[in-house]
Specification:
- The protein is α/β, with parallel strands linked by helices and 268 residues long.
- The chain is 33% helix and 27% strand.
- The strands form four sheets. A five-stranded parallel sheet has the order 5-1-13-14-15, with helices on both faces.
- Helix 1 runs parallel beside helix 9.
- The two termini are 14 Å apart.
């Protein structure tokens, strides 16, 4: 299809119960559809209206879920509409075609990381040595590509994140703080590179995108038009670009608004 829609998932199209931001009176709250179950418990939601919009979007555009989640985490999500032909996981480290990793793409990514970045093991060692057990809750490696920490935000020193970012910058890595997670990601590992590859393969001449976090900035910059919700790190820092619209909606209603914008632009 000539229109490619690449969207972040968590806190952009789908929301945990803690992120729903249902500030309206209970009687006016939107009906919700559960789209992810983990360990037999509902985990992520979208509004029923958003679900219908996403289904309609599949008729007029190639929808590409674009996430920092690992493949295993992504596969827990059951989005409405036809299964997407393409999906992007691990922040661009894995390009899925009909649900299966494209090995050539993954090999290309690994080659870039080896050439341009300090090894993951070095970054993990630094994180382990400098993180304080007082505020560290979990330490994880995603797909042997990048690392992240789950932290107590109230106890996390702001200076520690800044010092980590400066240390990582000289080694070809970026650092971002998103909610309760501190991500350390190699610079060449980007959602935008994978989106451009899908656009090349599909012949798309219009790329639409949405995202809420600092790891989505490159994705939005690669789009012809993009949207960010009224919450998240991009909103908190006031990040904008000429082709990006900042939406006022926050929480699950922002996901609904983003899908309305996608559908209207794709039909136009």
């Amino acid at each position: 299809m000539p229109v490619l829609v690449a969207s972040d998932l968590d806190r952009t199209l789908i929301y945990s119960s803690a992120a729903l931001a249902l500030t309206m009176p209970d009687a006016r709250a939107p009906r919700l559809l559960c789209v992810e179950v983990h360990e037999s418990r509902p985990l992520s939601y979208m509004t029923e209206t958003a679900a219908r919009l996403l289904t309609d979007l599949g008729d007029v555009a190639a929808f590409v879920p674009t996430t920092t989640r690992t493949r295993k985490q992504f596969q827990r999500i059951n989005l409405p509409g036809p299964p997407p032909a393409f999906a992007i996981c691990a922040n661009g480290g894995h390009l899925l075609v009909d649900g299966v990793t494209d090995r050539d793409w993954h090999a290309r990514v690994l080659g870039l990381l080896a050439d341009e970045c300090a090894p993951l093991a070095e970054v993990r060692e630094h994180l382990t040595r400098t993180a304080d057990p007082v505020w560290l809750r979990k330490q994880r490696v995603a797909e042997d590509l990048f690392a992240y920490l789950v932290v107590d935000r109230e106890l996390l020193p702001e200076d520690w994140v800044k010092e980590l970012a400066a240390w990582a910058e000289n080694r070809g890595w970026t650092v971002s703080l998103q909610g309760r997670k501190v991500y350390a990601v190699p610079k060449p590992l980007t959602k935008s590179a994978a989106v451009r590859e899908i656009a090349r393969r599909t012949g798309a001449d219009l790329i639409l995108a949405a995202g809420d976090s600092l790891l989505d900035a490159d994705l939005l910059q690669a789009a012809d038009r993009g949207w960010r919700p009224g919450h998240g790190e991009l909103a908190d820092t006031g990040w904008l670009a000429p082709q990006i619209s900042a939406l006022p909606e926050r929480g699950v209603l922002a996901g609904e608004r983003i899908l309305r914008e996608f559908l209207a632009e794709a039909r136009r």
